[in-house]
Amino acid sequence: MLCAVYKTRKKQGMYLYVVKKGNFDDVPAPLLERFGHPELVTLLSLDKRDKAAGIDKKKLEEELTSNGFYLQMPPKEDDLLSSHREALGLSSTPDVKF
Q1: Which domains, ranges and CATH numbers included, belong to the chain?
Q2: How would you label 53-86 residue by residue, b for 16+ Cβ within 10 Å and e otherwise?
Q3: Residue 97: its pLDDT value, please?
């Protein structure tokens, strides 16, 4: 199976996989609007892979076959301030007093 991978400038690490290059017919309009202008990253052959960018090949193929697209979200970012506060023995969120 061959698919096209697109990125967005709106959110780093977010990618949209579609079955055919330039074909966004199966992507819901609200999702495509939030995604912004898709920029082609690569054409990807899934035949010789077990994973693609950390995504299980079977899951990706199932999503592409059933929905016509797959949206890869960026990994969750660590909250370094909360981690630091906890290491100091404080609550993870500061007390707010007005």
Answers
A1: 2-87 (3.10.510.20)
A2: eebeeeebbebbeeebbbebeeeeeeeeeeeeee
A3: 66
